[in-house]
Amino acid sequence: MSKIKSVEIKIGLEVHCQLTNLKTKLFCSCSSDYREKEPNTLICPICMGMPGTLPVLNEKALEDAIMVAIALNSKISERMLFFRKNYFYPDMPKNFQISQYDKAGGVPLALGGYIQINGKRVRIRRIQLEEDPGKLSYEGTIESSTYTLVDYNRAGISLIEIVTEPDMETPKEARLFLEKLRSILEHLGVSNGSLEGSMRCDANISLRGGKRVEVKNISSFKEVERALNFEITRQKNLIERGIAVGQETRHWDEVRRITISLRTKEEEQDYRYFPEPDLVPVIISKDQIKKIEQSMPELPDERRKRFVEQYHLSPQTAEILTRSKAMADFFEESAKLYDKPREISNWLTGEFLSYLHDKGIEIDELTLSPKHLVDMLKLIDEGIISRKMARSVLQDMLLTGKMPDAIVKEKGLEKILDREYVRKIVEKIFKENPQAVKDAIVDKKAINYLMGQLMKATEGKIDPKMAGEVIRERLSKLSKFATS
Amino acid sequence: MPSYIKLPAYEIIKRIKAQELMAEDYIASLYERIKKVEKDIRAYITLTEDLALKKAREIDKKVKKREKTGRLCGVGIAIKDNICTRGIRTTCASHMLENFVPPYDATVISRIKDEDGVIMGKANMDEFAMGSSTEFSYFGPTHNPWDLERVPGGSSGGSAAAVASGMATLALGSDTGGSIRCPASFCSVVGLKPTYGLVSRFGLIAYANSLEQIGPITKDVRDCALLLSCIASHDPLDNTSVDRPQEDYTKYLIDDIDGMKLGVVKEFFGEGTQDYVEKGVLEAVTNLEELGTDHQEISLKNLQYALPSYYIIAMSEASSNLARYDGLRYGYRIPNKSYDWSTVYSKDRRFGFGFEVKRRIILGTFALSAGYYEEYYLKAQKIRTLIKRDFDIAFKKFDVLIGPTMPILPFKIGEKVQDPLEMYMCDVDSVPANLAGIPSISIPCGFSKGLPIGLQIMAPPFREDLLLRVAFSFQKNFPVSAKLRSYE
Amino acid sequence: MVERKKAISKEQIESIAWLARIEISKKELELFSRQLNDILFYFSKIDEVNTKSIPPSYHVLDLVNVLRKDEVKPSLSEDISQIAPQTKGKFVKAPRMA
Ligand SMILES: [Zn+2]
Question: For the whole model, what pTM was predicted?
Fold first, then answer.
């Protein structure tokens, strides 16, 4: 990994995000709620590309896309056009995709813009609206299957395509960019990134001295870092062996976790773009932009600043929390339930985050609510469980979704609060360890051995403070007796 | 043979509404006529007799119960087979769509059903509307009722031949570069291409989206106004449909064109125009002058580029529109073989499409391909702007522009099929209206050597009223009468 | 013979036909080659027009902003097997990809 960083790397992304909060598809009135539906049941003559049918743009899709463009600081076109991108593929009902284009007189939704990650700007080249193709599946693998199964339920779903400049220098930056983008889209309420296939991307990478390689078919941004790392290693190996990296398009194979070269036949890229004659131009007025801008919810950057001011969090902590809308929401809800924001944020950015990272999941995929966390913190503050015990309670909560008090009861984790009971145990330990007691009377440091014995006998359920008090109390009685 | 098969629609409708004529009897008589002459003319791809008679009986019942009936009350209509009809196969005269049954109606079909029109069947055409003679049909050519050895014009040849031979009282055609007006001219009937955007294209199987319109093909101008009134309406399903108040075009049937200014377009009498045609059209101009109009010659310089520009645009759009026919979701698919998808597509399209369609797709693909886009497609669209400007200027001076619809008389079947370019040249006078998006009508203006000649009248956008007024006045005062030799 | 501009070669026709997914036979290639060159030669007439400062007329109408509400309407009620030539279960069956 460290070797990779030493080479100059340029990464650009082409991200496709579904506008998942729309009720219908981009150009027809079929329901867009296609996940887990029977194949080819959410189709109509329009999204099946049947003869004689015509597209009509979804008003809400346009508004959502404008919102995204505003959030990404892009310049929204006054008059945008749809273009046809012509190519044959079995997932394409019309064998052209209604998309947008920035050449040949084409004007996409928005140009320019940027996203800030870790104090660095990743520039946006363009943002456009387009339709999703259908979905192909195979018996076995794509290479071995003797036929292909096509489901057109996804065909016509609204996508926004966001193309960046090659401004990212590490796979990690690419991941951070995508996380931030997702957080922005989720804050805007236009897309739910946790839905399968709702955010996909192609990446282009060039190492110094090498040509640009495009990696397609990265189906989620969890895969991005992995795919990029693989590709960089592959290219570095080629360079080290003195082999030139050729300009090509490669496929990310999620199962084998490698990139594979696409056959040249499929690579032919004469898309014959031309303006879609069946869709009239869309004029976006300054008033409309203003209206949408005013109705826009708080974005991650603003929220981060507010977290610092309102909850007195460190900027770093606020940054980590707002990287995901679900995380930020979890934090705020917890803070609302229990006014200890710093304590809450410590747990979230510590234990929670490393658990989520290990499992590769998002916080909203947990069966855990802010009340779980808050209840646990209350148990600590009430002295019922120790901080150390809380960690094991948390692990249990994460796994089972049970409330913390239930876990504590079930496992008998309550701290021993009965001082008389502790005295009895201490008496027993003193009897069993006369030498240690003698030592402790003379040497204050030797008290630790007795403490250890006490903790062992109570399975750590005793408050160390009380343990020390009871032992010292008993020792002082003994020493008084000895000296007097 | 009952005389009402020769009657125009408005007469039929009047009689049905007055209970002087049973819709069922009238429709049955049309099918009688079809049984007699269709074997020679071949105007239809699909006949829907049972459906039509059922609908006719329903209408008769409605009339009897004095329920409200539509403006097309019981009248028999032939529908060009590129207009989708729910539950009735719509083939586009192509092997590719031989068994395609649309699960939806085109908007114009819904309108016709709402107005109680009766669909007789689906009319023959050039495959995917690509042609000017109805010879390029997978189902074989249609013959001109006036001379069975000749073509009826195209691509809406079946629609025009059906109306001309009494196998339908009204018909719908579509006009991308003259496909309504050409067969109207060749078959001596009335055909109108509306202003782009006046009639919904939803359900019209696209050939070249930015050029085409559905329009009426009728026996006379009054019927034309009636059918146009029924189909012209705003449709939210079509982006290019204009939202304007619905009109009753029959109110423009006024026999008064005194003082109107006519521009006779010089370029419409260019090289390639037959003398018979020129003579016939100029005679019509003289006739119009008798009705108090003024005429002057006018030259629209950029019209000389109209034909190549039209074909470049039409072929380019077609190459993309017809990409969807791959045999996967509907349409023709080669018998199960173990080829990969690309090979299967290439074979489906090789055997599913006819020569002319393949020629146009390949040329259109070429015109849009990298490095050629600006030279062809973009350039043609720019010339379109110039042609539009020429018309704008001309309409500042003239109310309507006139010329022949076709430069030649109907030609023999087979005469031009070997030479595509020669066939394209037939459209020289009809494509300008499509490029400019303006309305244009063809009306019969005489015969030469027993073959029909059509007069073309063009007006500014959405001035169908002017077209109808001029056409109506001409037809009223100078009716063209000729008897169908073969079928009287 | 005068050398014609913009001729399209047979190889070009073959690759364009592939791009358009239309298999053509040797005979068709011969025929198309002759016909397409005639047609393209005729099309070259437009070269004489200067269109440098002329905007294209992609749409003859000035219509803009035709949109629809984000409201669900029923999808097709027909089963896919009634529409597509080849199906497997509820899927459309396509040829192999590789
Ligand atoms: Zn749909």
Answer: 0.91
